[in-house]
Amino acid sequence: MGEHAGNRLQQARGRGALGNASGRYDLARQEVDDGWDAGDDVPVLRTEVTTEQPRRIIAWNKSPDLPFDRSINPYRGCEHGCVYCFARPTHAYLGLSPGLDFETRLVAKPDAARVLERELRAPRYRVAPIAIGTNTDPYQPVERAHGIMRDCLEVLAAFRHPVAIVTKGAMIERDIDILAPMAEQGLVRVGISLTTLDAGLSRRMEPRAPSPRRRLQAIARLTGAGIPVRVMTSPIVPGLTDHEIEALLQAGRDAGADAASWIMLRLPMEVSELWQDWLAAYEPGRAGKIMARLREMHGGKAYDARWGRRMRGEGTYAEMVAQRFNAAARRLGLDRPTAKLRCDLFRLPDRAGDQLSLF
Fold first, then answer.
1. What global pTM score does this model have?
2. How far apart are CA 253 and CA 229, in angstroms?
3. 126, 149 Cβ separation under 8 angstroms
4. For the residues 60-71, what does the mean pLDDT come to?
5. Which of 81, 121, 113, 114 minimizes the C-alpha distance to 98?
6. How many Cβ atoms from other residues are within 10 Å of residue 37's Cβ?
7. pLDDT tens, position by position, 272-317
8. Burial letters for 87-112: b for 16+ Cβ neighbours within 10 Å, e otherwise?
9. In sequence order, which residues have a C-beta less than 8 Å from that of residue 343 and are 6 or more positions away?
């Protein structure tokens, strides 16, 4: 594991990344001394949260790989610390590291709900489902103190606006009182990411995310309240979690999920180096096989960012994974079409002082 691997693993306890190299936009790019050699008495890395006042909160995309054209991100960075997170490179735009900075130096948007309401009231706005959680998790631990996701949900509920939520966070149970009435109106669908059933592996890869057991419990509680849930076996890691595909789908269905989806491990930009450092530290015996599989699917590279290829790769192995997933989903009834989120209920709620509110 290298000369100082023991110290690095001790220092990284509770965090996903093992390093904090400068981002690609840092003009003074250099290797950062992140303290791995300082000994066991180095204090635990604490999470720092700063705030941002966004002019806009709805982000738009035209990607043919995505089933939505708009999304909301209440936070930048994610305290869950999933080492494989494809969103890590976005921290470089802030002049921060996609490594430890991504999971310890977060940005919250406390005015997100107010800005969202303003954008939904714009005369040119046309309703379509908004996705939340596609970049960083809206139910990461800092949400407990800031409540930005709940504020945004209250706005969406008032406007009867459809929303699709992706999360690993069991904190979503807090908002069942909002989500259940929206589900009755066909306005919400939730995706719960379930990467592995191995609690030890999950803790190493996703150090501050809820355990697999706890995520399954969240699926059960949501579906028990009438909220439709998709189990997302993402990412599938070749040579590490791919043997669990059928078990993951079975567990999700048993918890109440009515649909399923998958994405192969993606290693864009700085994520590739972070992931390979993690493999060298935690899975040295399987690192070669895992990276060989990834390169096999991406034309000899660790990652191919082209549309149509980046989500699942190409070749014999990628096709085998797709066949296994499809067969298991079909057997479990998780391949059936789900109802589209309703857009016809959208309305502009009255504001205090509006003339109609007097009658």
1. 0.86
2. 10
3. no
4. 86
5. 81
6. 12
7. 999 999 999 999 999 999 999 999 999 988 788 776 676 788 899 9
8. bbbbbbebebbbbbbbbbbbbbbebb
9. 127, 128, 129, 162
